Amino acid sequence: AGLALFWNPGQSPSVGPSAASGIRVAEVSGEVIFTLPDGSLQTYSKDVELAAGSTIATGPAGSRAVLFYADGTRMLIGPSTQLTLGGQNGKLIQLDHGVLTSEIALQRDGRFLRFQTGGAEVEVLGTGISLVRLTGEPLVLVHEGRVRVTRLKDGMAEEVSAGEQVLVAST
């Protein structure tokens, strides 16, 4: 169940660090590099916690990481992927490239989980999603639940529900 987002890499939005976020690394395999907000490298050990502002980069085929948020959200970071955890409690994920699949818990605290990539922002309104960054413009496909997709260039937004898709054109 989820959503897939495809786009051409562009200038990435800024994702700044914040306080500890309750994001726990549950599992890694293959090559995975965790860079903390201060630029230091973190090695994996069971249940290591990451702060907002941390960057995660996975190596080629077979490399992956699984993250758990305190609210029950689960994220699988696929091979050849780089992302940064930002915003309050790490709830703004900047996907630079690669594949991210998430099972997102109901966001009870009023702060929706958001993803940014290229010129698009996806705000999760209740769903499981997959984000894939390839070449071309972002294509958002929703398999379950609902998301709000915003083109950052002009703020144009559209809600996309299960079984629907939207192409985020750059113009």
DSSP strand (E) fraction? over 45%
The percent of residues in helical segments reads: under 10%
Oligomer: single chain
- How large, in whole angstroms, is the Cα Rg? 15 Å
Structural commentary:
By secondary structure, the chain is mainly β. Helices cover 0% and strands 50% of the residues. The chain is built from no helices and 17 strands. Strands 2, 3, 4, 5, 6, 7, 8, 9, 10, 11, 12, 13, 15 and 16 form a 14-stranded mixed β-sheet that branches. β9 and β10 (92-103) form a beta hairpin. The relative contact order is 0.22. The model is unreliable at 1-20 (pLDDT under 50).
Write the layout of secondary structure elements.
Blueprint: E1 3-5, E2 20-29, E3 32-35, E4 41-42, E5 49-51, E6 55-58, E7 64-69, E8 74-77, E9 82-86, E10 92-103, E11 114-117, E12 120-124, E13 128-133, E14 139-142, E15 146-151, E16 157-161, E17 165-167
Parallel strand pairs: 10-11
Antiparallel strand pairs: 1-14, 2-5, 2-7, 3-4, 3-6, 6-9, 7-8, 8-10, 9-10, 10-13, 11-12, 12-15, 14-17, 15-16
